[in-house]
Amino acid sequence: MAVADWLQWLENTPLAVHIRQAAWLYPVIEIIHIVGIVLLVGPALLFDFRLLGFAKHLPVAGLAKHLLSWSRRGLWLIIPSGILLFMTNAHTLGYDPVFRTKLILLVLAACNAWLFAVFRSRWHNSTEMPIPAKAIAVCSIMLWIAIIACGRLLAY
């Protein structure tokens, strides 16, 4: 099955059609998606600012444990709601350069988070973060702003 055929099939599934036709379903899914974004990005940005040197009195390890658990909860809302939103307009979005850019940025954000996880144990007891930790934080901030901007651009 070609990509175009798969995208069209996805958009024509009964679930996608129902979401498009139900008066309140699409807006409810969109609200869930936005709440998930807040839960994911808000704590991530607060943690990134800590890595950049703000609120040095807060221990990195404790802050990571608390804030990043909220980010993971946000993912549980974002992923299924994002898939449902995509399904309703799969054919158009599948070829939209902004959507493709957003997906690439999401992959880069995941790689950035993975890098943080790999090196976190080396930094969690430090008061002053090393340059690589700060670089990861700056990348995270820039990536999440760009991802959110792409999401907003898709709405218009």
Computed over alpha carbons, the radius of gyration is: 18 Å
**Portion in strands:** under 5%
Mean of residue pLDDT?
Answer: 93
**Total number of helices:** 7
Global shape: elongated
Secondary-structure element string: HHHHHHH
Helical residue percent band: over 70%
Give the helix/strand class.
mainly alpha
Overall domain count: 1
Number of strands: 0
Low-pLDDT segments: none
Cα distance spanning the termini: 30 Å
Largest sheet, in brief, is: none
InterPro entries: DUF6644
Protein name: DUF6644 domain-containing protein
Organism: Chitinophaga lutea
Keywords: Membrane, Transmembrane, Transmembrane helix
Plain-language structure description:
Keywords: Membrane, Transmembrane, Transmembrane helix. Residues 30-155 form the DUF6644 domain. It comes from Chitinophaga lutea. The protein is mainly α and 156 residues long. It has one domain (3-154). The protein is 82% helix and 0% strand. It contains 7 helices and no strands. Helix 3 runs antiparallel to helix 4 (60-87), helix 3 (25-51) packs antiparallel against helix 7 (131-154) and helix 6 (97-123) runs antiparallel to helix 7. It is elongated. 21% of the residues are buried.
Per-chain topology:
Layout: H1 3-11, H2 14-21, H3 25-51, H4 60-87, H5 90-94, H6 97-123, H7 131-154
Keywords: Membrane, Transmembrane, Transmembrane helix
Protein name: DUF6644 domain-containing protein
Domain DUF6644: 30-155
What's a quick, concise take on this entry?
This protein has 156 residues and is an all-alpha fold. The protein is built from seven helices and no strands.
